[in-house]
Amino acid sequence: MTRSDWPPASQARYAVIVLMVAYLFSYVDRQILSMLVGPIKADLGLTDTELSLLHGFAFALFYTVFGIWPIGTWADKGNRRNIIAGGVFLWSLMTALCGRMTHFAGLFAARVGVGVGEAALTPTAYSMLADYFPPEKRGRALGLFSMGVYFGIGVAIMVTGALVQYVAGLPPIDLPLIGEVRGWQIPFLLLGLPGMLVALWVMTVQEPPRRDTTADLPSFGAVISHLLGNRSFYLNFFFGISCLTLLFNGIAFWFPAHLMRSFGVDALFVAFTYGPIMFVAGAAGILTGGILADRWRSSGNQTAEIRVALVSALCLWPVSIATFQVDNVTLALILAIPTLFFSSFPFGAASAAIQLVTPNQLRARVSAIYLLVINIIGIGLGATVASAISDYVFADENRIGDGISIVALFSAPLAALLFWRCQRAFKEIQPN
After folding, report:
1. CA-CA distances (angstroms) from residue 40 to 32, 36, 99, 186, 270?
2. pLDDT digits (tens, 9 = 90+) for 105-124
3. N or C: which end of the chain has fewer CB within 10 A?
4. 2 falls within a domain
């Protein structure tokens, strides 16, 4: 396919920026809980493990299931832009509804709704961007899109941290048309509603023409057949990325609580130290990984994307453990820079790898299955495994950092082994 067959570069750049902003808002809404651990625990009497279930399992279960069916199927044959816009509106509404819940069950249900809405974005966006950018440019395009994760977490930490400091001592207040609002509910209301405007902005993106398609949408059986026929790559790669996602989600969710519990700092300190580090180091890592994968691929390296993931796992192993074992808050924050850089490093390249070896009309559903695996393990268990270790092994919430270190001790080297194993299969299934 010639360069002129692809959409205009300006149109492609506009699409990736709009979708990145939508991804930013998805992670703002997803990450709010990490800065509200203290106020929610105090008000609702929840444990660390229950809070981690709200952050992980409640979100991930329906996020992953709906990503495959029906949303993945719609995305492989329908208008992907409209699907994303509807998802953005739904998750923003459900985030705002979290600010009206006063018990665990209500919060759990609202978080399920956030997950259902967010299921519409990532696999659908992967499919769209693969039709906007040729293979040698996809790594950086998907890296730029995925920067929204780290911008979103950073913004959530900074904005929510400042709000927590402000509303911590406030009594419940009555708002017109809304009713009584507790201090910890305000961030959900303030951060959920603007996302509805982003949904309108998404509607200005043009749906790109699909490439290499067939008249009829391949069945879900064809998706499973493709995965099983190439399981030497998909199985090792999916579970390798899952190991890194497990570690990253544990770090992202529990690092603010670790700083506050271990070093006695307040939410405002965390907001404007850890927040900017996440914003800059995380975004720099994923974009650098995508650019490096594109550069290696342009030079003829057929395992470029897998090499990026392997570098990430090997570098992340020692530095992530050290981050949670030092006894000085400044040193912990300094070590958080390479930890967040290398924890984000592989994800843009990983998305590009899957689009490269997956036929067009299977991409959204294969991407959704990829997200199912990495999110059930990573989001569903990432925060929960670490908190279960501190709650039930050490019986001390102040040892949440030790829980993260134990997760890192096993997950990073296992990821490296799985990436090493899948390199040959990845090379063999690439299109000519």
Report:
1. 11, 6, 11, 12, 17
2. 999 999 999 988 998 998 89
3. C
4. no
Show the domain range for 394. Answer: 7-206+217-428
**What was the pLDDT predicted at 2?**
47
Token match 């440019």: residue?
137
Q: Is the dihedral of CA 252, 253, 258, 261 positive or negative?
A: positive
Contact 305, 295 (CB under 8 A): no
Contacts of 242 (CB under 8 A, 6+ apart): 373, 374, 377, 378
Q: C-alpha distances in angstroms, 349 versus 146, 153, 196, 356, 408?
A: 10, 20, 30, 10, 21
233, part of any domain: yes
Is cis: bond before 70, omega within 30 of 0?
A: yes
Q: What is the mean pLDDT of residues 207-233?
A: 88
Pick from 368, 358, 343: nearest CA to 253:
343
More confident residue, 65 or 13: 13
User: Is-contact 38 167, C-beta < 8 A?
Assistant: no
Name residues whose C-beta falls within 8 Å of residue 12's C-beta, 6 or more positions apart in sequence. Answer: 6, 132, 133, 141, 208
Residue 236 lies in a domain: yes
CATH of the domain at 378: 1.20.1250.20
- The total number of structural domains in the chain stands at 1
For residues 226 and 362, the answer to whether their CB atoms sit within 8 Å is: yes
- In-domain check, residue 1: no
